[in-house]
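Title: Prediction job returns without error message
Component: structure pipeline
Severity: low
Priority: P3
Assignee: unassigned

Description:
Job completed but the reporter wants confirmation the result is attached to the right record. Sequence as submitted:
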Amino acid sequence: MNLEELKKLREENFKKHKKKKREYYLKSKQKDSDTKYKNYKEIDYAKELDNDNFAKNIKLIVKKQKEFIDDRKEQIIRKIVEYREKKQSYYQKNRDQRLAYDKEYREKRKEELKEYRKDYYKKNREKILAKQREKRKNNKE
């Protein structure tokens, strides 16, 4: 087989596949539309919205909404509790590693932190001293 024959064969197979796919899609679409409206019943709005039925319907709707919200509330609370437990267990499990890393980090950055604190104190010396004077004054009184 040469290249042209292969291309033609591939194109034919692709067309067959597309046709088969389209038929399947149309068939499934037809099934959906048949079942969709099978249980459909017409609503008599005059009857539904008169004074007696209207109050009943509103109460029913409110009751369903409240049940839904209560169910969701329980699920949300359960998820929060689950998350807290998971977080706590992870914290306990990796506590030693984290503490070792923090210690190592502080040791590594010790000199940089000293320089930063010195510079910060020099820049904000007046503000810091004013705050200290204010605190001393308040403590004396």
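Comment from assignee: result matches the submitted record. The CA atoms of residues 84 and 90 lie 10 Å apart.
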